Amino acid sequence: MATRLITLRQGDARDAGIVDALMAAAFDPRFGEAWTRSQCLGVLAMPGVRLLLATVDDEPAGFSLTRAIAGEAELLLLAVAPPFRRTGVGRALMDAVVADCRIQDVTILHLEVRADNDALYLYRATGFAKVGERRGYYRGRDGRQYDAHTYSLALGST
Asked: The pTM is what?
């Protein structure tokens, strides 16, 4: 089996089309988790927001979107296209997010995830611990509601 090269780079608003395509591939519309282009662009314009893009052999494979402020950060979105799941792309993105947070002197990283999302395995493996729950937070296209769980990762001071 050939080794595939995972490359990470900082992104910006010019990458909105890539982010849109990755969200369309990665997020099942029945759960209502994907953001619109205008939501992404609005967040990207805020201070402390970082977009990180992952490619595998130059093919868009995933991204993360984080916001850091006042010593805390939140992983707003993380997406990995289905063909690249369980290939190290998600882990590479998470490791880079954590490393970037440490550089920014972030002491705690938060995230929110649908209660039965497969990404929970990645978050737990990274060291996140569940700290809360929001009942019926996500609303799917069919009107069904899904619980969200909140997780945090203590990074300590650098």
From this structure: 0.92
